[in-house]
Amino acid sequence: MNGTPQCVSLTTDYGLADGFVAACHGVLARLAPAVRVIDVTHLIPPADVRRGAAVLAQTVPYLPWGVHVAVVDPGVGTTRRGIALAAPGGLLVGPDNGLLIPAAEALGGVVAAVELTNPAWLGPVVSRTFHGRDVFAPVAARLALGAPVAEAGPAVDPGTLVRLPEPVVHAADGVLRAEVLTVDHFGNVQLAAPGPLLDGLPSRVLVNGHEAVHGRTFGDAPQGVLVVYVDSAAQVAVAVNTGRAADTLNTAPGDLVTITTP
Amino acid sequence: MNGTPQCVSLTTDYGLADGFVAACHGVLARLAPAVRVIDVTHLIPPADVRRGAAVLAQTVPYLPWGVHVAVVDPGVGTTRRGIALAAPGGLLVGPDNGLLIPAAEALGGVVAAVELTNPAWLGPVVSRTFHGRDVFAPVAARLALGAPVAEAGPAVDPGTLVRLPEPVVHAADGVLRAEVLTVDHFGNVQLAAPGPLLDGLPSRVLVNGHEAVHGRTFGDAPQGVLVVYVDSAAQVAVAVNTGRAADTLNTAPGDLVTITTP
Amino acid sequence: MNGTPQCVSLTTDYGLADGFVAACHGVLARLAPAVRVIDVTHLIPPADVRRGAAVLAQTVPYLPWGVHVAVVDPGVGTTRRGIALAAPGGLLVGPDNGLLIPAAEALGGVVAAVELTNPAWLGPVVSRTFHGRDVFAPVAARLALGAPVAEAGPAVDPGTLVRLPEPVVHAADGVLRAEVLTVDHFGNVQLAAPGPLLDGLPSRVLVNGHEAVHGRTFGDAPQGVLVVYVDSAAQVAVAVNTGRAADTLNTAPGDLVTITTP
Could you tell me if the ipTM is greater than 0.90? Predict the structure, then answer.
């Protein structure tokens, strides 16, 4: 682990049906042909900055030291800033709308921030609606080649960076109440609560009033039964063995889930 | 920019749920292991040659000089020709059904065309239904390794290549009428009209009778309001700020959109 | 073709909307940065081991000699074994639930099997629910670097490996009855029957009572008409020219299809 970029990662809401992702890959391949590019996902729901922030933050710890580009950017082309952040564990590039902060914290915290205004670092023409291709990918390529962050533009006071609101997490007296952070492909419901908040709960609990097993993996509950566990991102989560907990609980990101002792 | 292939790109309607795309990657990796492969998209709607042609043409200008394989090919295994086209900005490989022509034009125009009949260039067994794997990928690998196009098969008169019909574009007297070329992941409606046809329109216009802002990016309109702008492919487009213009206009590729002065 | 891994392939039911696939790519890139990674698909329906097995088996023959990781793993974290299999044509890594066997057979048959219990080969922390990232990717990286399979853990008697039930295939007296193995992106219905079972059938047949052409490619039938053919995986399949056979036949994997002479 060190400060030489070994990959560029991409996290966007561009979808996979257009040429948007490939255009970003193309810009990177032209400017930094030797750099490996890893797609995190391009299926962040359009403009869902919170979801993008959560997926990125939970994935970057497993990627090589690198430059992580994220674009969920409903304000593209307006006065919102384009930024690069430096953290001990990597660099982040994208819009200043809160998207990058949780990942920066997962990589050790923001140690420097700049606004992406150096015209020499951008594409030859900067469109008003596709900064992934015209701003963020060119900047990421230069960073991946080893150029210093400080050359990308003027320093930004980290205290002025836009941040997402903190999700609700409340634990007391054997009751854990927390906001749903993500629902994954399997319908597993991940809460904003860190795993240790499950300590001390008994082997049978209630989740929004439904009976659930407090276990360690899906198969610890009978088929079709809820299981509460610490997931692979070290968050409290709720699953259904061979089912979809989000459907059983009828819940979605931003909703509150309450875990109680029967 | 020069004539040495630095990548192979893939654009298909194969979807992402089967092993079809990976089989093409595998053939390329076996024959040309050092060549970078960039996926443009594999979610062209099945058999939608026009959509494939538009996405490819708008993406190739941002890719490294290379070999661009496209397969949207309802006529696979019939008498339709497999072809390779040479353009100043790259090579194109796929079926002779109009799919490759707009991209060739975006890369400077067709300067040579051949029919892919050299058996030494094809896979060991050529199936009747999967020419991406058995014809186009093997040909692309050989071209990526630097073999000359002329060895892939006999020259084809470019005048005999199958072409898609030209889309409708009509501009006169402050009225712009144009066919919808694509609807992207965000529901943005891209017209066949090139961007300069917006010049001279006032800051408020009507799109199929709906009020719209003539702006430069999504945020130039209030939330939920239509905006007409020049998109990142330099085409006239219609969006809704934080919404889906295709839903607001109830329009799809091939439909006509009319922009008028109120 | 030889025994030096030239790629790692990934086949999962992880979907493309979360960071799961990227975390596996990241682990591979950290441990084996020079190895090419090919995504087969991540859209196996959740927990559909049979579908995963079929897609993998039909794709690996076209990939470079390598390490093929597959994760469709509803029993993750329970007592089901994690295994690596050696075949003449490649290595396979994943859960012991039948997923890997058809691919091993397509690569020449299982010649050795081990259980993945060597802690030195696994990730620093092994979660109970994400063995793709914490077990299978680290093992695959080490195998891709050339470490011997026997070091991954103790030998397993191949006779004890979990196997999927054999699909129904019955051919006699001009009647072919076979289970649907897969339905692809185009709605083409692939049967468990190998292609030679079509030999001797006349040019017109009935498929579940519907008239069909016995042909070689989609275009051998008029538009909208069923065609029975040998597909690109050398299996008997049913398509509709410019349509979806699975819809016409109202059939899905596991159903029986009967082809008869009119």
Answer: yes
